[in-house]
Write a structure and sequence with these properties.
With 538 residues, the protein is of the alpha/beta class. The protein is built from 18 helices and 23 strands. The strands form five sheets. The chain has a nine-stranded mixed sheet, with helices on both faces. Strands 5-2-6-1-7-10-11 form a seven-stranded parallel sheet, sandwiched between helices. A three-stranded mixed sheet has the order 16-17-20, with helices on one face. It binds glutamine. Residues 356-358, 384-385, 408, 463-466 line the site of glutamine.
Length: 538
């Protein structure tokens, strides 16, 4: 018999940034803890085909999946919480929906019909929701609708949700996330914004089944009853989501509020027993009770918006917890570092991570910081552009290749130590055309990387156009910067490590994308260990 698939929709009202992604991931974690197979999908109502072309200042980091999809950062939360891989099917944008409808129209697939938002766009949205259910892999598909109910751009999504509920009444439900603000002057929590946002949903034909109310103060039973009464839900379906100390507390808080139990009851499924969160709780215990502490500098050009480095920060949390070590991040803007102040800015940290990025802004600061940590033997971890900067720095200051650069930044450089990949040379379109997703890396024994992974072939995710120029490999290696990881098919250099340095590792891939609570990224663990040792030494 085919597996019964349940569709859970998560909408948001009142304001953005209420944390729909974390609530979706927390509910999924609870259902997973009861033995169910769950996936989460994000529908984004913007016209970009994917967030790959978006500046990180817009929506934070672009998260990359194994299959090379450039996606919303919420997919990172889904993977980090569930330890289950996502794919292109888990992130859909309005741009992608319209693109496929228009392609079908050009192929004549609509047989001369007028192509309209309803039914053609909504059918396309429905297909993309159900595609995950049809795989037969999941008991639950949780679909998070980006944006806020009432926005023009989310209307077709809410209509698609309405139709799916109408078709699958007993296998679907809607969780609406709202805000219950505290008015200081009145000394009261206010329910009206919630009432209004439920009304906005009702106008679109959708009655939420469960309300998750973000709040700074506990909701007493009177408030819960009031919200239930005016919003047409049962009072056990008014769930409090109080501000949490960390996002990793939210599954525990949702368990206490019985969110999973209410969901199962509404879907006429057994809610007996409790979800098993033992491993999660063990992680939280280590995370909150560290035995050691280190300070690590994170050097990047988007640090005004910390979400631009979401996966890196969470990788530090996962790896730090596994080592019972708190990792404090000192955020340093790459444009602010120069030869004169690098000692002042970096002498008090135990390790330095130079972040990924694109374009010329802040590049000289990154190079300067790397010079300082190389010369002063401070543990260094360079990711993607961070690794490329390490090669530029080494070429300029050790090999004396004056003006060595990446051809991304200086097309006319005499020493393009980082150059455009061969198969990128013919590409002009920007969207989805980089080297994306998981590729193999063969690691040389007797390297930090080998010690970290304890494996000779690993698969890590990529997102870049430029690469280490193998023309310079021999000279660079002779001078002490060794390539310790290669892609076995293309021979592209994936990892470099410096000899005669306690820990100097640069990687062309992004280990941060695969780090989860259950499986911290090995290279983050080894970097933290090196920083701890450096701290003890000094
Ligand atoms: N801009 C560099 C490239 O395209 C590095 C990309 C990155 O750091 N993700 O190769």
């Amino acid at each position: 018999m085919a597996r019964k698939v349940n569709y859970i929709f998560v909408t948001g009202g009142v304001t953005s940034s209420l944390g729909k992604g974390i609530i979706s991931a927390s509910l999924a974690k609870l259902l997973q803890g009861r033995g169910y197979s769950v996936t989460i999908q994000k529908l984004d109502p913007y016209i970009n085909i994917d967030p790959g072309t978006l500046n990180p200042y817009e929506h934070g980091e672009c998260y990359v999946t194994d299959d090379g999809a450039e996606t919303d950062l919420d997919l990172g939360h889904y993977e980090r919480f569930l330890n289950v891989r996502t794919s292109q099917a888990n992130n859909v944008t309005t741009g992608r929906v319209y693109q496929s409808v228009i392609e079908k129209e050009r192929k004549g697939e609509y047989l001369g019909k007028t192509v309209q938002i309803i039914p053609h766009i909504t059918d396309e949205i429905k297909d993309r929701i159900k595609i995950l259910g049809k795989t037969g892999e999941f008991d639950f598909v949780i679909t998070e609708i980006g944006g806020t109910v009432g926005d023009i751009e989310s209307l077709p999504y809410v209509e698609a949700v309405r139709q799916i509920i109408w078709e699958h009444e007993t296998e679907s439900l809607v969780i609406h996330l709202t805000l219950v603000p505290y008015l200081k002057a009145a000394g009261e929590l206010k329910t009206k914004p919630t009432q209004h946002s439920v009304k906005a949903l009702l106008e679109l034909g959708v009655q939420p089944d469960i309300l998750v109310c973000r709040t700074e103060y506990h909701l007493n039973s009177d408030i819960r009853k009031k919200i239930a009464k005016f919003c047409n839900v049962s009072s056990d379906a008014v769930i409090e989501s109080i501000d949490a100390e960390t996002i990793y507390d939210v599954p525990i808080l949702m368990k206490e509020e019985k969110l999973d139990q209410v969901v199962l009851e509404k879907l006429h499924m057994s809610s007996a027993g409790k979800p098993d969160l033992n491993k999660w709780e063990a992680f939280l215990l280590r995370f909150k009770n560290p035995k050691n502490e280190i300070n690590v500098a994170l050097i990047g050009k988007y640090i005004e918006l910390k979400d631009s480095y979401k996966s890196i920060v969470e990788s530090f949390n996962h790896a730090g917890a596994s080592l019972e070590c708190k990792v404090n991040i000192k955020w340093i803007h790459s444009e602010k570092i120069n030869d004169d102040n690098s000692s002042e800015l970096l002498s008090d940290v135990d390790g330095v991570l130079v972040a990924p990025g694109f374009g010329s802004r802040g590049i000289e600061g990154k190079i300067q910081a790397i010079k300082y940590v190389r010369e002063n033997k401070i543990p260094f971890f360079g990711i993607c552009l961070g690794m490329q900067c390490a090669i530029i720095e080494f070429s300029r200051h050790v090999l004396n290749l004056d003006g060595a650069h990446s051809s991304e930044i200086d097309e006319g450089t005499d020493y393009p130590v980082i150059d455009l990949m061969e198969d990128q040379k013919k590409i002009s379109s920007k969207g989805g055309t980089m080297r994306l997703g998981a590729y193999a890396c063969k690691i040389k024994e007797d390297s930090h990387a080998y010690k970290a992974y304890n494996e000779s072939i690993v698969y890590e995710r990529h997102r870049h156009r430029y690469e280490f120029n193998n023309k310079y490999l021999e000279d660079i290696e002779k001078a002490g910067l060794k390539a310790t990881g290669f892609n076995p098919e293309s021979n592209l250099v994936e990892i470099v490590e410096l000899e005669d340095h306690p820990y100097f590792v640069g990687v062309q891939f992004h280990p941060e994308y695969k780090s989860t609570v259950a499986n911290p990224a090995p290279l983050f663990k080894s970097f933290i260990k090196a920083a701890l040792e450096n701290k003890k030494r000094s």
